[in-house]
Amino acid sequence: MPKFDPAITDKLTSMDADWPQDPAVPELPPIPDAVNPPPPKDNYLWKYYNDHTRKPRAMPPRPLTDIVNEEAPLEADVCWSMRSPYSYLTLNRLTWLHSNYNVNINIRVIFPVAVRTRHESGKAGSGRWYKMGDALHDTHRTGKYEGVPFKYPYPDPIWQNEYPPESADNAIHPLEKQPYIGWLTRLGNYAELQGKGIHYVHAVSSLIWGGHADHWPDHVKERFNSIDGLDYDTAIQNIREHTEEVDAVWQKNQMIQLNAGHGGVPLMIFQGEPFFGQDRFNQFYWRLRQSGLTRRDKPRAPFTVKPLHWPDGE
């Protein structure tokens, strides 16, 4: 059994009570309300609703039949949260897919569901009492199964009252009191504007969730600067000077998610069809193959090792 340092426990408890002003986080403009608007009535799941009893209102699009190559790749969106362990646990597979196949994986960084469903009371919109315990167990198990380094981060990218689990009210503090998630989300949105969304999550999500640093915020700048064509100081200055342009990215991404008829991450979307969760990756890949997915002649950045479990046994 691992030994727990009482000093660390005391530190966690005190920091949960009074979240610190982390010097690693730059001062940024206030963030607009990120709570989800009502979903569009013509979203994918409602538009193609089929209970296999009544006649469906419409049939979903058929798989594509065009020739797929490097000049004409498939396009897929992935709605992504920097606080989502399951987004991170899909990262190696998505990166390998983007790098080695003729499909552009367009990462769409949004705010976590804890922020997007925050009630006026401060509580998240989930009444699933078992979720935290199940996630803590399942994410570690999934990391081991996939051969992916995994550790729950401290500090948590979201300040939410989750401990002790038997008495926590799960209240989420408002965005103006969240030191990390706005910073991480806006950096991702800036990277998207530069065509580097998947490069960003490849570099930074692995820092947060891979257990590579004692205090991950101290290393975000270094990881960001490791991405070819991106500069951290330039990004922060751009976020300060062009705040509305950057915030428009996560707002658009949020609508892409809602138009797919969903609210969870990771959400892989192809031809409008949602594939929710790391355990739907194989079905997502299967749908791409139905639409003519082909291998690239040479891999492209960002590079990664081949996933331990890959569909088709390739």
First-residue to last-residue Cα separation = 38 Å
C-alpha geometry: globular
CATH topology: Glutaredoxin
The CATH homologous superfamily is called: Glutaredoxin
User: pLDDT under 50 segments (min length 5)?
Assistant: 11-15
Short description, anyone?
The chain is of the alpha+beta class and 314 residues long. The protein is 39% helix and 7% strand. The longest helix has 17 residues, at 243-259.
Describe the protein:
This protein has helices spanning 6-17, 44-47, 85-100, 113-116, 131-146, 181-193, 197-209, 220-225, 232-241, 243-259, 281-290; strands spanning 74-80, 103-109, 267-270, 273-276. The longest helix is centred in the C-terminal third of the chain and has 17 residues, at 243-259. By secondary structure, the chain is of the alpha+beta class. It is built from 11 helices and 4 strands; from the N terminus they run H-H-E-H-E-H-H-H-H-H-H-H-E-E-H. 39% of the residues lie in helices and 7% in strands. The two termini are 38 Å apart. A 4-stranded mixed beta sheet has the order 2-1-3-4. The chain has one domain: Glutaredoxin (3-Layer(aba) Sandwich). Helix 3 packs across helix 7 (197-209), helix 6 (181-193) packs antiparallel against helix 7 (197-209) and helix 6 crosses helix 9 (232-241).
